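Section 5.1 Outputs to date
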Amino acid sequence: MALKTINPTTTKAWSKLQAHFKTIEDSNLVELFAKNSNRANEMTIRWEDFYVDYSKHRISKDTSNTSNIIVVLFFFGHGVIACY
């Protein structure tokens, strides 16, 4: 059975993500790492041989806490969808 196709830009979560972006759009990675020296450890997924470090993206803990938003990270030109 195929899953229903949904345009993510029409969802409430997308609207919340856009509003959240306005609060972080002027931040940069140097600033984000300076505010949280443990950022790399906190924003890394490790499972067996699988390792994803998303600390080098302009996101914050609030990004992933904004109403269970789906965060789309791009690695090597392929979208990886991660739900937090």
